[in-house]
Amino acid sequence: MVVACVTTGIAICSDLRLAECQWNIVRAWAESFNKYLSIITQKAVNIPYLSLQQVNRPHLEEMERAVADVMASGWFLKGEATRLFETDYAQYIGTRHCVACGNGLDALTLIFRAYKEMGAMKEGDEVIVPANTYIASILSITENQLTPVLVEPRMDTLQIDDTLIEQAITPRTRAILLVHLYGRCAYSSTIERLCEKHHLKLVEDNAQAHGCRYEEDGPARHTGSLGHAAAHSFYPGKNLGALGDAGAVTTDDDALAELVRALGNYGSSRKYVFPYKGRNSRMDELQAAALRVKLKYLDQENERRRATADVYYRHIANPHVILPGRETWLSGTSHEEVRWANVFHIFPVLSPHRDALQQYLKSNGVGTMIHYPIPPHQQQCYAEWNERSLPLTEEIHQQELSLPCNQSMTDEEVEYVVNCVNAFVPETTV
């Protein structure tokens, strides 16, 4: 008779040779079991920053049918799928027009190009833009031979500081490019009044904020309908993401919409007639079909992102990690204007130990990203700005880390991320 205890490694037997044999069996079994445990545990804590496979899975069958319909039609550009998406998205945003194009950068570039063709702007004119934005915002300005004027953000919102805008306005200023960074509404009544006072165009970069709303001064309005024109990116990783590159311009300006459409079609509004030197920037039918499916679920999926963010705001408690916007969120979650003003495309945290925190989370199975490691004014492509000092922008870029925050995450995964962040202790403080 043999009695074996796997947890203690004890084998009791009157026959020593049999006991040794049994112990070897038990030991081998325990080693195999431990390997199995290691594998399943590793799987359980493998939380990617974003898995496009996971976020698209709930809509896969419906998108496959929509794409199959396009394939069967034999029409792949400037067809019915794009027309229907433009109609649906314009209705969703709350504008008269939606003009589909190739990507978000093209959308921004076409807006400024159209304003130049309309005489509202000319080469050398200035456009105010947040200094901590993604570089595409600034590329669209310089591509049109306009001059970006960089304005520092607020550290509590990471959005442009509207109290600093007016001092940046000069006689050459023609527009404010408002970027809803990280999925948070950057619009304010102050910015609206400044545009009216100084006769400025308000252009929105809505690449990260699909579904975000502004509700402070009247009925709720979606970002993308707050200014004179807005650019949208449907890059696959966005809240409303295509299966490749795609973008759009939304506006209530009939003339602008017509001109943007022509400029994105080689400069032509009529076949083989080219009044403008345009470019090729068109959304294909496959992307339009997929986006039309996903648009139906955007608000629902954004709400799941908000639920994840709410857990982070309420339960992450680490003196080495700052959560911008926490106070506003916790003091106002019962108010619709607070909840709807952020769709959490990115959930940013700040830490002076950012790199160590990122490595710690990686070692514990949590994927993260940095948005963004190098600010625009320190990029090589804008070498003429490299000596500028923008301390708040630089601090954000040195400290920002994005936690996973998307609709595919389970409650258990969210809790695990919270526990990991809370357990982080920089080596310098040990």
In percent, how helical is the residue content? 40-55%
- Characterize the largest beta sheet: strand count, sense, and whether it forms a barrel: 7 strands, mixed
By DSSP (H or I, 4+ residues per run), the number of helices equals 16
Helix/strand-derived category reads alpha/beta
- Spatially, the strands of the biggest sheet line up as 3-11-10-7-6-4-5
Distance from first to last alpha carbon: 52 Å
Q: Unreliable runs, pLDDT <50, ≥5 residues?
A: 1-14, 28-42
Word description of this protein:
This protein is an alpha/beta fold. The protein is built from 16 helices and 13 strands. The protein has helices spanning 16-44, 52-56, 60-73, 80-93, 104-117, 135-142, 165-168, 189-198, 254-263, 285-295, 298-315, 326-332, 336-339, 354-363, 391-399, 411-423; strands at 3-5, 10-12, 97-101, 126-130, 147-151, 173-179, 201-205, 213-214, 221-222, 229-233, 247-251, 347-350, 400-403. The strands form 4 sheets. A 7-stranded mixed beta sheet has the order 3-11-10-7-6-4-5, with helices on both faces. A two-stranded antiparallel sheet has the order 1-2. The protein has a two-stranded antiparallel ribbon with strand order 8-9. Strand 6, helix 8 (189-198) and strand 7 (201-205) form a beta-alpha-beta unit. 42% of the residues are buried.
